[in-house]
Amino acid sequence: MRGHVKISGAKNSALVIMAGALLCSGDCRIRNVPSLADVKLMGQILSALGVHLQQQGDILDINASEIKTSIAPYELVTQLRASFFAIGAIVARLGVAQMPLPGGCAIGARPVDLHVRGLQAMGAEVQIEHGICNAYVPGRSGRLKGARIYLDIASVGATENLMMAATLAEGETIIENAAREPEVVDLANFCIAMGAKIKGAGTSTITIDGVPQLHSTDYSIIPDRIEAGTFLVAGAITHSEITLSPVIPEHLLPIIAKLRDIGVPIIEDSPDCLHILSAEAFRATDIETLPYPGFPTDMQAPFMALLSLAEGDSLINESVFENRLRHASELNRLGADIRVKGNTAFVRGVPILSGAPVLATDLRAAAALVLAGLAAEGQTTIQGLRHLDRGYDRLDIKLQQLGAKIQRVPVDIRV
Ligand code: UD1
């Protein structure tokens, strides 16, 4: 492969920023929105709440001046975990919300206890009955109250949900042990652009001073660091030279550091453009997934594909989610040598992978199989592309443009 790839807007920013638009009673224009199944689904959920949306290319206009119902639709919410993160915004706007418990990728139990406890600390009555999370704010004002919230785990979604809720609460909210992911900062910047008073996003302590209402804004979301990381791995695994932009290299530090560590040269052509050079071979390494700025769990599967072809043995420890190593057995079908014990994978590097039919079990697993398939000798057929389309903006087309031999096959003629 060779050439340049344009990185799309961040999926995880787009989804929460769309939820954040619920806080505003005016027009919100969101730019750099990636074309993804999850974004479409989030749009359908907002529409079902009575919100007006209009999309043109990567620009999405949202008007939530009237939220007609506080009941989010079960069939849609259960398909997208991030939609649950909107409960804080809905309660903050309406004083009441009914949100089915979330779905999304099957990568672990993924409870919402931190979200619930945070809303309760802010004065909401929250009950979970028959799979629905019912939240309402007692009292005449219907406004949440600022609170001091300590998160047991630095959960990305809980931080975002509670930060959104706090923007319209009465008084000050302090979220301690907050997640520091760039997408949390992006959401905070979007809320600030709407007039929210938020300080400390990107650190472990976020302080929000509630305001009575937020105003219209025009906001562009950050580039997707996981999509960029996936293309870096695509370059490394196929020994290719490619450039990527726009990117924010700072957001990719743990990924760039690991690639350099195993012998893959990466240079910054300009402040928003990365250049990966072809490496003949790469060494094994150990990886532990951690909250940002540690190594991202969303890059664990792509790196497992890469390390399956490294010189030597690697150890991968997944410490964020409890069931996120299911791609190991599918990579083994392609000739990888990976053993899994608990949350740890032992990867013994092999000289070649060979094509085979494989099944994607979740979003990042799907990406890992595409990457392994690019490097494998012979033909690999990947089923379960719906997972891939949830989170990658035309990955197959972008890879094709770089010269990869990859083709989407309609289901009825798949062999
Ligand atoms: C977000 C990202 C996802 C990424 C993950 C970790 C979105 C839409 N998704 O997911 O791509 O892989 O961050 O970087 O932004 N937990 C609890 N109780 C809670 C909430 C979380 O125990 O109430 C646990 C989870 O089960 C998990 C850990 O906290 O083990 C981290 O999860 P969290 O940061 O919340 O992930 P998400 O926000 O769901």
Give your account of this protein's structure:
The chain is of the alpha/beta class and 415 residues long. The chain has two domains: 9-208, Enolpyruvate transferase domain (UDP-n-acetylglucosamine1-carboxyvinyl-transferase, Chain, Alpha-beta prism), CATH 3.65.10; 225-401, Alpha-beta prism (UDP-n-acetylglucosamine1-carboxyvinyl-transferase, Chain). It is built from 14 helices and 21 strands. α4 (87-94) packs parallel to α6. The longest helix is centred in the middle third of the chain and has 13 residues, at 225-237. The radius of gyration is 21 Å and the shape is elongated. The structure holds uridine-diphosphate-N-acetylglucosamine (UD1). Uridine-diphosphate-N-acetylglucosamine binds next to α1, α5 and α6. Residues 12, 15, 81-82, 108-115, 153, 155-158, 179, 183, 297-298, 320-321 line the site of uridine-diphosphate-N-acetylglucosamine.
Total of DSSP H or I helical runs spanning 4+ residues: 14
Q: Regarding CATH, which class of the largest domain?
A: Alpha Beta
Counting DSSP E segments of at least 2 residues, the number of strands comes to: 21
Give me the CATH architecture of the largest domain, please: Alpha-beta prism
* Overall pLDDT: 95
Which parts are unreliable, with pLDDT below 50 for 5 consecutive residues or more?
Answer: none
Pairing-aware structural class of the strands and helices?
alpha/beta
C-alpha Rg, in Å?
A: 21 Å
Beta fraction: 15-25%
Which bin fits the share of residues in helices? 25-40%
Tell me about the biggest sheet?
4 strands, mixed
Molecules bound to protein:
uridine-diphosphate-N-acetylglucosamine
